[in-house]
C-alpha cells in the first residue's frame, strides 16, 4: 500500500513509463525497479531520444532526470507539454534545491524527487500521478472517442487536446481538409463533455440557401414567409442543453453571421417572424476547410465572429499525413461493410493494404470509406485483391463530385477561361463575368489565380 492508503500500481494495470536518464547504469537499475512493480518501461538516454520514443508510443507517465546534456529535465517537460498536454512528468535530481522544485512545480511538473530516491516515496508519487490522470480522463474510458480510429501520434495529440477542452464550455473551431473527420471530432468532444446526455445537432452551413439556413438555425413563426404554414423550432432550440455543430461555417452568408454573433453574445435567439426572444443554452462547435484568415481579409467572414468561434482551434491533418492509420482504418471499415453486406469477406490482401497505404487520398477518410465500400460490394473472395483496390481508386477519382466541389471547380475553370480571353485584363474579365472589380479580385484570390500569369508572353500552366 502507498502512504495514502491506495495500492501500488501492479502488473495487472501495466502502466507504461518512459524513463529518461543520461547515466546508463542508473537507467538500468531504476528500470529494473519499476519493472519489478509491474510497470512497462521504455528507456531513453537523452531528452532528444525521449521525444523520439514519444512519437512512437505515448506512455502513461514520464520519469526524467533533471541534469542532462543538451536538454535538461525542465526543457524536456516543456516540450512534452507542447506535444502531449496533460502527460504527467516526474523529475529526479541529485542536485535538488528549493528554487528548482518551485520552478518545476509552477510549470506543471507533477513531482520533484531527490536522488538517491526513496523507493516508497517514488512509487507513492507514481501511483498518485497515475490515479489523478485516470480520474481526469474519466477513469480510462475511451468510449467518447470510439468513432475515431487512429494510431497516429499527431491524432493522439489532437484527441488529448479535445478531451481537455471538452470539460469546459468554450467554443471550438475544427479546421482541416474536406473528409478529414471534423464532424466525428466534434461528436467526440460532445461525448466527453458534461452535455453528453443532451442532444448533439449538426448542420452544414454551405448546403442550404440563406433563408432556409436561417429558418433551420433560428426557427420561424407561422406565416413568417411564404410556405411557413406552422411554427418551426430551430436547431438552436433542438440542441438546448447540448451541442450545436456548424459545419462549413466559412460558407455562412454575412447577414446570417451577424445574427449568429448576436445569438452567441446575448445567449438568446429570435425566430423569423417573431417579436419574442428565446433563451438558449448550447455549446457551439464549428468547422471549416476554408482559410478563414483569407476570408476575413476578403470581407467574406466577420472578424468579431471569428474570434468568438475560434477560442480553441483543433486542426485535423489530411489522411496522407497519417498514413500509418490507413491499414487500421481499412481493416475496421471492411469489417463493418462485410457485416452489412458480405460476411464471407475477411479483409484485404497484403498487396492491397500496401496500395491503400501508399495512395494520396485527396478526399481523405471520406474517400477511403467509399473505396472500401466499393471493394466489398465487388469482391467475390474472402481477401480483397490489389487489382480491385486499384479499380476502386480509379472509379473514385472519376466519381461525381459534391455540389460544393463541383461549384468550386466550375468557378475556377470559368475564371481561367475569361482571364485567357482577356489576356489577364481584370477590368475586361470582370465585365464579362458581370462582377465588379472588388468581387472579381476576391474570386481570383479564393482560387489562387494571378492575372499577370495570363498576360502575353507569361508562362503559365492553367488548364482550360
UniProtKB/TrEMBL annotation:
Domain of life: Bacteria
Single GO molecular function: DNA binding
Pfam families in the cross-refs: AAA_lid_14 (PF25601), Response_reg (PF00072), Sigma54_activat (PF00158)
Residues modified as 4-aspartylphosphate: 65
Alphabetic keyword roster: ATP-binding, DNA-binding, Nucleotide-binding, Phosphoprotein, Transcription, Transcription regulation, Two-component regulatory system
Domain Sigma-54 factor interaction: 148-377
GO annotation (BP), single: regulation of DNA-templated transcription
PANTHER family: TRANSCRIPTIONAL REGULATORY PROTEIN, TRANSCRIPTIONAL REGULATORY PROTEIN GLRR
Name listed for the protein in its UniProt record: Two-component system response regulator GlrR
Organism: Halomonas stenophila
Amino acid at each position: 500500500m502507498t502512504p495514502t492508503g491506495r495500492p501500488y500500481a501492479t502488473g495487472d494495470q501495466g502502466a507504461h513509463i518512459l524513463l529518461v536518464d543520461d547515466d546508463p547504469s542508473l537507467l538500468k537499475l531504476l528500470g529494473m525497479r519499476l519493472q519489478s512493480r509491474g510497470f512497462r518501461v521504455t528507456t531513453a538516454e537523452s531528452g532528444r531520444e525521449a521525444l523520439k520514443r514519444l512519437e512512437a508510443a505515448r506512455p502513461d507517465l514520464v520519469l526524467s532526470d533533471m541534469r542532462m546534456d543538451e536538454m535538461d529535465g525542465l526543457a524536456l517537460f516543456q516540450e512534452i507539454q507542447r506535444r502531449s498536454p496533460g502527460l504527467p512528468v516526474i523529475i529526479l535530481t541529485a542536485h535538488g534545491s528549493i528554487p528548482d522544485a518551485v520552478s518545476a512545480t509552477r510549470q506543471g511538473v507533477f513531482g520533484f524527487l531527490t536522488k538517491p530516491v526513496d523507493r516508497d516515496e517514488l512509487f507513492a508519487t507514481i501511483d498518485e500521478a497515475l490515479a489523478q490522470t485516470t480520474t481526469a480522463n474519466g477513469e480510462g474510458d475511451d468510449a467518447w472517442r470510439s468513432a475515431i480510429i487512429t494510431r497516429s501520434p499527431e491524432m493522439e495529440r489532437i484527441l488529448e487536446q479535445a478531451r481537455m477542452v471538452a470539460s469546459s464550455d468554450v467554443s471550438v473551431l475544427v479546421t482541416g481538409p474536406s473528409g478529414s473527420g471534423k464532424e466525428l471530432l466534434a461528436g467526440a468532444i460532445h461525448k466527453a463533455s458534461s452535455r453528453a446526455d443532451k442532444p448533439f445537432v449538426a448542420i452544414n452551413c454551405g448546403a442550404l440557401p440563406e433563408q432556409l439556413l436561417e429558418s433551420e438555425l433560428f426557427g420561424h413563426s407561422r406565416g413568417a414567409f411564404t410556405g411557413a404554414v406552422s411554427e418551426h423550432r430551430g436547431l438552436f432550440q433542438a440542441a438546448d442543453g447540448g451541442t450545436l455543430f456548424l459545419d462549413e461555417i466559412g460558407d455562412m452568408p454575412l447577414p446570417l453571421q451577424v445574427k449568429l454573433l448576436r445569438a452567441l453574445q446575448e445567449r438568446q435567439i429570435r425566430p423569423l417572424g417573431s417579436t419574442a426572444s428565446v433563451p438558449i443554452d448550447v455549446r457551439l462547435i464549428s468547422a471549416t476547410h476554408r482559410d478563414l484568415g483569407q476570408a476575413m481579409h476578403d470581407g467574406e467572414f466577420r472578424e468579431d465572429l471569428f474570434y468568438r468561434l475560434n477560442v480553441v482551434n483543433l486542426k485535423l491533418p489530411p489522411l496522407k499525413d497519417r498514413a500509418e492509420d490507413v491499414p487500421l482504418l481499412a481493416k475496421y471499415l471492411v469489417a463493418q461493410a462485410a457485416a452489412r453486406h458480405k460476411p464471407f469477406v475477411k479483409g484485404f490482401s497484403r498487396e492491397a493494404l500496401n496500395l491503400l497505404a501508399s495512395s494520396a487520398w485527396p478526399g481523405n477518410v471520406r474517400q477511403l470509406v467509399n473505396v472500401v465500400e466499393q471493394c466489398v460490394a465487388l469482391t467475390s473472395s474472402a481477401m480483397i485483391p490489389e487489382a480491385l483496390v486499384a479499380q476502386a481508386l480509379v472509379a473514385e477519382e472519376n466519381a461525381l463530385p459534391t455540389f460544393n466541389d463541383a461549384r468550386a471547380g466550375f468557378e475556377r475553370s470559368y475564371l481561367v477561361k475569361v482571364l485567357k480571353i482577356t489576356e489577364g485584363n481584370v477590368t475586361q474579365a470582370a465585365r464579362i463575368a458581370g462582377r465588379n472589380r472588388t468581387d472579381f479580385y476576391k474570386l481570383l484570390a479564393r482560387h489562387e489565380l494571378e492575372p499577370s500569369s495570363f498576360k502575353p508572353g507569361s508562362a503559365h500552366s492553367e488548364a482550360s
